[in-house]
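Reminder to self: keep the SMILES exactly as supplied, no canonicalising. Ligand is 2-acetamido-2-deoxy-beta-D-glucopyranose.
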Amino acid sequence: MKSTAVATLALVGAASAFHSVTMTVPKSAQVAQDFSRRGFLSTVAAAGAAAVAPALAIAADGTPAVEKVPLGPMPVDWGLTKDYYTDASKVVSHMRYATSMEKGAANIENVAKNCRQEMIDFVSYYRRFPNVSGKLSYSNLYTSINVLAGHYASYGPKFPVPEKRRKRLMEEYSQIDKAIKRQR
Ligand SMILES: *[C@@H]1O[C@H](CO)[C@@H](O)[C@H](O)[C@H]1NC(C)=O
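Structure tokens returned for the bound complex:
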């Protein structure tokens, strides 16, 4: 329960920074401003190019990293349908895509911005339905959303999710998918 409360604060903090940070903190302001721009949706639709991760990456210390699965085309179906399981499933898949993106990937910034907006929309919309917010899939997804939103709040939309955090998020996404499949 305590970690949930902390996670809640992280998201609220990130969301309010997103809306209220002003020019007094130039770097954060730039990030907040970038995130609040909605015009990028059309850009994303136009730039439907595939972002493919390398088949085998070598970590900085020279050891082969976990084999990467090609990411496939960038998502273009951003936004909520207002059907809970459809949306939960969509948000997880978009988060998985965003989390998998490597440094320098062509669309990393667009994906991050869209994903972040979708996460905020998802939480804002579904948190008011007790029949949804009490679900296991929702509370788990909420926790993961806080982690990814926290990453963007700290590093902005261009910086990839560090390997350790990425690995944990990927495990959480799998758990969430299972809960969704079981309608929990
Ligand atoms: C939750 O309740 C609302 C009405 O309050 C309903 O429209 C919606 O379908 C319900 N969602 C789920 C996933 O049960």
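Points to follow up:
Residues 84, 129, 131-132 surround 2-acetamido-2-deoxy-beta-D-glucopyranose (CB under 6 Å).
The chain has eight helices and no strands.
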